[in-house]
TrEMBL record, chains A, B:
Signal peptide: none annotated. This is LacI family transcriptional regulator. PANTHER family: HTH-TYPE TRANSCRIPTIONAL REGULATOR GALS, LACI-RELATED TRANSCRIPTIONAL REPRESSOR. It comes from Sediminibacterium roseum. Keywords: DNA-binding, Transcription, Transcription regulation. Residues 4-58 form the HTH lacI-type domain. It comes from the Bacteria.
DNA sequence: CTGTTAGCGCTTTCAT
DNA sequence: ATGAAAGCGCTAACAG
């Protein structure tokens, strides 16, 4: 902890503590002359205000929290980048919490945040979240809360998402047009808004092209990578294996690549794969991969901007913003 | 901010504030009976302590800061994952700051942290850092500081790094053994410990195999992606272009892939590339890529563990830890 | 324009 | 075993 505080500064300057405080906050009550002296002395002694004293008194922390399932994930890393950019502009600090897809972690994190440690919370739900009690409880304490990407489906709240349904539809359509007759869909969890909607788009695309939907082809994966690999392997080992795969999240696409690699299945000749992915180098490393790329950085920026509007009460009364951004479909020569 | 505090709790229970406080901290001065009552009431009213009051009083924040150049970067994302894991175990909060490779940002961030907002700092320097004044200043306030990966070379301090010199040596040797006659080296900045050491390894490998070192083949890149692309393009457009490239950081490898893609240069037939990379899927997407992979997650864990040892004063007096982990060289069929 | 004063909510002696 | 009281460092009325 720093040992040089307002008291010390004021003694050094022969001023009262409050005058020094006001000078430092550039109050109109203080003469330009004094301000200069104070600033100079603060600089000289390398004065750094104690943030806790200030937060305690002013009842604001100049800090926001970001709660996400994981960080070693291109989407979330980019989103955080966008969030940090906005936060930095506003002079806010950013606390990051990882839930590792565990509802328990999410719950306890949110509970801790009710202590007033932050002025606002950005959150992307974990795959197991099936209750919103902790979230409404946080909301009730008056702390602004914005959901991004993985949002609750049964709660009125501000959200920033992408066009999941449309993207799922288009991705599937892409595979159909590329000649696929049997398309599997890898989903994370039916509880999750994103996969739920993406799968719905998949189903409707099949319907549109009069392809019958086979429930066994919609595979709900777990949070265990090993078991996901096995399930995918089993799927692709079948004689009548699918000729197309729609992976609703990047991680499952990577698992698919891995299995194909192991089984010597050629993409796209033997299996066409399309996935949500923010692996920006994927098509550089393998030019035949089609992806749906979310504007992750923009999602981060939009979410943070919305949150700050709420913190600064610049958003009206009980208006609830729902921002939807567009993903981009990057089609490669998978039809070749 | 929460409205339910110790005062309210104590009124509800008919106890004094201090007794309630002690009960919640499980003090031996309080009877088991009372503790139970207090805990129950705290639970019932969903009491969350005000972290600022506590921090102000106890002069500790239960928070650490992580200062890194960027987050949309596989190495740093994984490192943060490791850091968060340890921090979470210890019940600490994690503040993240991005410098975006700007020395100014780094300086002002470090300066802010002198206010006592955190109990310790983990930092990986930005490419332009050429002074350690801000760092020694932070150190002098008594806040424990651990450097990881990008560490200062002119300052006695605890560090967690990988075997950069050896890896650079081996990577270059790999290219030489694969038949390369003219090997270029893409460096980020000579100010940076990691690239400095990696380039040194490159130079010594050339020496060992009696290949003359051409200073024009050691290319110091900038923080501007566009201009890096142009430099690489120019390098590869030459009639006597190199037949091997050693990229000291992942970003430059990706730029290289990109240029090769554009110029229709085949990797590895026409150009062998090896790079530091934590793009775990690289070889999945293109099986001919060789990489040096750093144990990023472990680096994060080790750094955080070391920091906590320092915070808890479990590390002796003026002992300075220097932890070096090993990278792994993943050799692919680039010699074919 | 400057100073005095009363807390913010919590921890921690020190009494009882 | 419990309570009274001081104070962490800062801000914001309110006086002067």
């Amino acid at each position: 902890m720093p040992n040089i505080n307002l008291k010390r500064l004021s003694e050094e300057l022969g001023l009262s503590i409050s005058s020094v405080s006001k000078a430092l906050r550039d109050s109109y009550e203080i003469s330009a002359e004094t301000k200069k002296r104070v600033l100079a002395m603060a600089e000289k002694l390398n004065y750094q205000p104690n943030p806790f004293a200030s937060s305690l008194r002013r009842k604001k922390s100049i800090t926001i929290a970001v709660v996400i399932p994981e960080i070693a994930n291109n989407f979330f890393a980019l989103a955080i980048d966008g969030i940090q950019m906005v936060a930095q502009e506003k002079g806010y600090h950013v606390l990051t919490y990882l839930t590792h897809e565990s509802f328990q972690n999410e719950e306890s994190t949110i509970k801790h945040l009710q202590g007033g440690r932050v002025d606002g919370v950005l959150i992307s739900l974990c795959r197991d979240t099936d209750s919103t009690k902790h979230l409404t409880s946080l909301h009730e304490t008056g702390i602004p809360l914005v959901f991004f990407d993985r949002v609750p489906e049964t709660m009125e709240c501000p959200t920033v998402t992408t066009d999941d349904y449309e993207s799922g539809f288009k991705a599937t359509e892409h595979l159909i047009k590329a000649g696929c007759k049997k398309i599997a869909c890898l989903s994370l969890s039916s509880l999750l808004s994103i996969t739920h909607k993406r799968v719905h788009g998949y189903q409707d695309a099949l319907k549109k092209y009069n392809m019958k939907e086979d429930p066994k082809l919609i595979i709900e994966c777990t949070n265990n990578n090993q078991s996901n690999l096995e399930v995918i392997k089993k799927l692709l080992a079948k004689k009548d294996r699918p000729d197309g795969i729609f992976a609703t999240v990047e991680k499952l696409a990577i698992s698919t690549y891995y299995v194909c690699n192991e089984m010597k299945l050629k993409i796209p000749q033997q299996l066409k794969v399309i996935s949500f992915s923010n692996l920006r180098t994927a098509s550089l490393l393998n030019p035949s991969l089609s992806t749906i790329t979310q504007p992750a950085f923009e999602i981060g920026k939009e979410s943070a901007s919305l949150l700050f509007r709420m913190i600064e009460k610049k958003t009206f009364g009980n208006r609830i913003d729902k921002i939807v951004l567009k993903s981009s479909l990057i089609e490669r020569n998978s039809s070749r």
